[in-house]
Amino acid sequence: MKYQRSSALFVEAQKVIPGGVNSPVRAFKAVGGDPIFVEKAQGAYLYDVDGNKLIDYINSWGPMILGHAYAPVVNAVVEKAKKGTSFGMPTKIETDIAELAVSMVPNIDKIRFVNSGTEACMSAVRLARGFTGKDKIIKFAGCYHGHSDSFLIQAGSGAVTFGTPNSPGVTEGTAKDTLLATYNDLDNVAQLISANQNEIACIIIEPVAGNMGCIPPTTGFLEGLRELCDKNNILLIFDEVMTGFRLAPGGAQELFGVKADIVTFGKVIGGGLPVGAFAARSEIMDYLAPIGPVYQAGTLSGNPLAMAAGLAMLNELNKNRNIFESINKKTEYLHNGLDRVLSAENVKFTINRIGSMISVHFSENKVVDFNSAAEGNNDNFKKFFHGMLDEGIYIAPSAFETWFLCDALTYEDLDQTIEACAKVAKKLK
Ligand SMILES: *Cc1c(COP(=O)(O)O)cnc(C)c1O
């Protein structure tokens, strides 16, 4: 495959945009080479500026669960745009999507819309702090909750108590309020809580981690967090930016039967437009301005185009609930196929899958947390990524990302992907 035009456009982009991209993971830093510039997309396929057709396993990092340019979503946006694109005043469609979201997701009474998952998680933590009157938060190593300051904290060997910032620009003061825990390790969380009695406002977690590859929670882990939170007057925040409206109509809360106190959304809820949201029971949500003391706002929040896309998307998922089963079956089929062809080549690998999230870790050990995810063979991943790309299969350009399937994928697409993997596997160690 040729990528000349993409490479030429990347040269131009780098002159005026830092690194040539508006979000770092789009640059192929982890795999080498130049990023692909997209011309258009339809259903399960991307068409790049060099005329290549690719089967897409990223789907805009999750939102396009029904495939690209899905007609009901596109039509809703086009019709809305004709009536004006932003007013900064209330519109009925905001209530319509709020009612639908609240009806689909368990355990929430009210929801507020923002413009990104980052904003949703940042606001959820502020709300949790305001509501509990406590400052510290617990997050898990390897979980991503957007790029606001409190979340850009990673584990160092001495970080059992206090995290250290892993980006310049995040102050020590902010970092000290973020405590780092190990995913799927309840004892570790219990220790953090007892070392910081009455100081922890909330635990924020991806109920299925997707930002260190796909890592599902081990049996009892989420239930255990719920218990620890109840005993210690801590709010449990499920960051469902990836899992919301993907793992089930009601997200991970529904799938696992575990209640969160605050839930954050992004990705699917916006149907491909910039939308995030956070939701909780009334008692908590009413702590927000204008009726409560915790401030939170947005000029473009609840934007009519964004709400039209989100509402059309949620309507489709709500009406056609068999979509979830259909997409899960496709993912299982892909899992079995990849497993078969990788095993045939004696490659060391582990596949994690839940619902329509799946990832191939090039490690023979179980991948259950950040450290086990980091053990993967990155040389193999790079070869795998570029090999698949040359076969017309687009997966995330990083070993630490889950794949997201869309329901537009056909079984022929999946067979083509498995055949591509069989070829590429021969080049791996
Ligand atoms: C993508 C993501 C975010 C951030 O959302 P943005 O819209 O990129 O700001 C937060 N949490 C999780 C779990 C995500 O996957």
TrEMBL record:
Homodimer. Its EC number is 5.4.3.8. InterPro entries: 4pyrrol_synth_GluAld_NH2Trfase (IPR004639), Aminotrans_3 (IPR005814), Aminotrans_3_PPA_site (IPR049704), PyrdxlP-dep_Trfase (IPR015424), PyrdxlP-dep_Trfase_major (IPR015421), PyrdxlP-dep_Trfase_small (IPR015422). SUPFAM superfamilies: PLP-dependent transferases. PROSITE patterns: AA_TRANSFER_CLASS_3. GO terms for molecular function: glutamate-1-semialdehyde 2,1-aminomutase activity; pyridoxal phosphate binding; transaminase activity. GO terms for biological process: protoporphyrinogen IX biosynthetic process. Pathway: Porphyrin-containing compound metabolism; protoporphyrin-IX biosynthesis; 5-aminolevulinate from L-glutamyl-tRNA(Glu): step 2/2. Keywords: Cytoplasm, Isomerase, Porphyrin biosynthesis, Pyridoxal phosphate. Its cofactor is pyridoxal 5'-phosphate. Gene3D superfamilies: Aspartate Aminotransferase, domain 1 (3.90.1150.10), Type I PLP-dependent aspartate aminotransferase-like (Major domain) (3.40.640.10). The modification N6-(pyridoxal phosphate)lysine is found at residue 267. One of its GO terms (cellular component) is cytoplasm. It is an enzyme of class 5 (isomerase). This is Glutamate-1-semialdehyde 2,1-aminomutase. Its main location: cytoplasm. Coiled coil: none annotated. Belongs to the class-III pyridoxal-phosphate-dependent aminotransferase family. HemL subfamily.
